[in-house]
Amino acid sequence: MAFAMFSLVVQIVFLTIWFLSLLCYGFTSHDYSDALEKSIIFFEGQRSGKLPPNQGMTWRGDSGLSDGSGYHVDLVGGYYDAGDNVKFGLPMAFTTTMLAWSVIEFGSSMGSQIENAKDAVRWGTDYLLKAATATPGTLYVQVGDPNNDHKCWERPEDMDTQRNVYKVTTQNPGSDVAAETAAALAAASIIFKESDPSYSDKLLKTAVKVFDFADKYRGSYSDSLNSAVCPFYCSYSGYQDELLWGASWIYRASQNSLYLTYIQSNGRTMGSEDDDYSFSWDDKRAGTKVLLSHEFLTKDTQEFQVYKGHSDNYICSLVPGTSNFQDQYTPGGLLYKASASNLQYVTTTTFLLLTYANYLSANRGVATCGTSTIPPEKLIAQAKKQVDYILGDNPEKMSYMVGFGEKYPQHVHHRGSSVPSIHQHPDHISCNDGFQYLYSSSPNPNVLVGAIVGGPDNKDNFADDRNNYQQSEPTTYINAPFVGALAFFSKNVSPN
């Protein structure tokens, strides 16, 4: 009898904890709106250059004010990609493309954050315009030597490492980084078309020129720049995917039939018919197929019907129970692709799920998986699981967005966040002196609000350790697609 009573008590306690956990992570539209605001302000923490008066991440200061000067070119501005102080062109351009795509698809759900989101895009495009127009036949693609930068632990305001400038040219091409830059400029031209038509026109015209450069002088920037970009941001997928991606964005922005012809003529040889199951700063194939499916689903443009089928294959690979399912999920339900910075794949996948759901809904369509079909609502539910996991509905009960929720990473692998702010400690902190903060057990003194870190392993375990960069380092390209996902749920979830 005593054992039965004890068993009943245990069951009641278990059910109570389970019910309370549901209440705890029953995110409301307000929660998603709060996360959206934080996800955008994060980009202010990654800014390089002269900071504006309305800078919200106030512990940051001006940095990189002479970038490019030694090469007689103005390359001030742009974003640091992650926790270091290098401006890598390929991930920066992809970040900008995804921020712009977030505004294009979900800007109507951003409310008061729409201007902040557009400012984040513009900070990227202002820099990319400089990089693309400074010298004819040249695209500047990087500022900072990553090998030397990674030997230091310095806040960006104190950088004293050499700010080498790297470029691709007609003799040393970089079709991948150039075509991604073209995609970013073209996508951004769409969101500024009404509010700033002259800027929009400049973006699109520059996108066309950069794309022509990328297409005419073909080659991978990894081959041209070698150790300056590898192994950090090697173009492992080659440059064909970026060429099709760039052409697709220019077509979306301009509706110029020349790019329709280009897509039709080159799609097959550029991997459009390969079913690829990841989407990242390196591999654009899945994103391109979803982007092009928009033309078929919302405009009934038959030339793009094939991309609907390929998008279905991609989407079906994500959904357990379908004949095409082939992805891996952690025991807690997180999509798992890689041991380092896994959340970059989660946020891009989530974005594509929601974007494709929008396209299907607009055409009353479904995703076809063999003999079964998946309605848009199921794609949205699948995306919501990933968003909620990142925000705290996971076995660790940890929000992987810094500053959101009650428990989030305190030891983020990020120089500026981990070293005392220049406002609190105005004296110069040199390259080697900064390592005391990398190895410190104390929480980061500056909260990098909105940053999404690399995330847990395949068993849902997370080490809040500054030295474990695979899990604790944030990047701009993790956050950028998540901006769109959070905007969607901020307007499509009923308050509790």
From TrEMBL:
Q: From what superkingdom does this record's organism come?
A: Eukaryota
Catalytic activity of the protein: Endohydrolysis of (1->4)-beta-D-glucosidic linkages in cellulose, lichenin and cereal beta-D-glucans
Q: Where along the chain is the active site annotated? A: 413, 464, 473
Question: What EC number(s) is this enzyme filed under?
Answer: 3.2.1.4
Annotated family = Belongs to the glycosyl hydrolase 9 (cellulase E) family.
Q: Which PANTHER family match?
A: ENDO-1,4-BETA-GLUCANASE
Spell out the protein name for this chain: Endoglucanase
